[in-house]
Amino acid sequence: MDYHEKLMSKNGLSTMTLAKEFLNCDVGDKIPTVSELNEKIGLARGTIQNSIKFLQLNGAIKLESKGHLGTYLMNKNTLILLAFAGITSIVGVMPLPYSKKYEGLATGLIVAMENQYNVPASMAYVRGAENRIAMLVADRYDFAVVSKYAAVNFKKRKDIIEIVKEFGPHSYLFKHVILFHDNNATNIVDGMKVGIDVESIDQRVMTEKVCQDKDVQYVRLGYNQILEKLQDGTIDAAVWNEDIIKDKMLHLNYRIVDLTDDGNTEAVIVVNKDRPEMKKMIGDLIDVETVLNIQKLVLEGRITPSY
């Protein structure tokens, strides 16, 4: 059946919108009334009624009216609803896999997203939580992986994303540290040049915290430039990821960033709040324990990362 052709021959926008609404419903749920849908999605009542009938006729949903109790979703064919919703793939975005922990996380997500709906799932890799969330909100990606720390900090500024999966402390990284160029340095002091990546919410906010009340010069750098600039003396200090130091067995002077909030070590998945159907899909498809088990096997060297 050519669902795309059917969409083009009917009121495609309304059918697509209603398909997403039903993807977000569980079998047995009471569905919104036509008036409620009219208020929510801004389409004419007649158009909504026609689209619901269209979805029923094409086997996407089965509804049952229970009089004054309302209408209930008795069955749904997720494959058909996905086709009518225009969801032909799921693409997530996460940090560049430059540590074993990130490689394990990427591998775990790919394994977890294998699904019975035959919807291809893949990952893209972009530096900086600020960039990843911006692309998510622009609908370039369906979900984004960031630290819980970054997600919460972003939501305080713009409440347009929602956390849908949490993977627990140390699933994102083990610890943040302050790196020093001088082997004898132990603290940030006045006069230091400190590397800061403004596109990384974690790195930026933590850098500002550890430099609080200090007269330092911030040097804007990409995260992947920090190590080189620290080693050649362009900067004196920077917040960085301890996992990379241990993975690469680097001999550097550093100390742990002492923060009470472990949200900076926890990986979470966020979605656009305007896409509840994707919240439902990610909730159904991605099992936290599966992802963590795969990540652990990669860290132990028992399986080869594949992402």
Quick structural overview:
The chain has helices spanning 3-9, 12-23, 34-41, 45-57, 78-85, 100-112, 129-137, 148-157, 201-210, 226-231, 242-247, 276-285, 288-299, and strands at residues 61-65, 71-76, 90-94, 121-125, 143-147, 161-166, 176-180, 193-196, 217-220, 237-241, 253-256, 267-272. By secondary structure, the protein is α/β, with parallel strands linked by helices.
List keywords for this structure.
307 residues, alpha/beta, Arc Repressor Mutant, subunit A, D-Maltodextrin-Binding Protein, domain 2, 3 domains, five-stranded mixed beta sheet, 13 helices, 12 strands, elongated
Task: Give a verbal description of the structure.
With 307 residues, the protein is of the alpha/beta class. Helix 2 crosses helix 5. Strand 1 and strand 2 (71-76) form a beta hairpin. The protein contains 13 helices and twelve strands. The two termini are 33 Å apart. The chain has helices at residues 3-9, 12-23, 34-41, 45-57, 78-85, 100-112, 129-137, 148-157, 201-210, 226-231, 242-247, 276-285, 288-299; strands at 61-65, 71-76, 90-94, 121-125, 143-147, 161-166, 176-180, 193-196, 217-220, 237-241, 253-256, 267-272. The chain has three domains: 3-85, Winged helix-like DNA-binding domain superfamily/Winged helix DNA-binding domain (Arc Repressor Mutant, subunit A, Orthogonal Bundle); 90-171 and 266-299, D-Maltodextrin-Binding Protein, domain 2; 176-261, Periplasmic binding protein-like II (D-Maltodextrin-Binding Protein, domain 2), CATH 3.40.190.
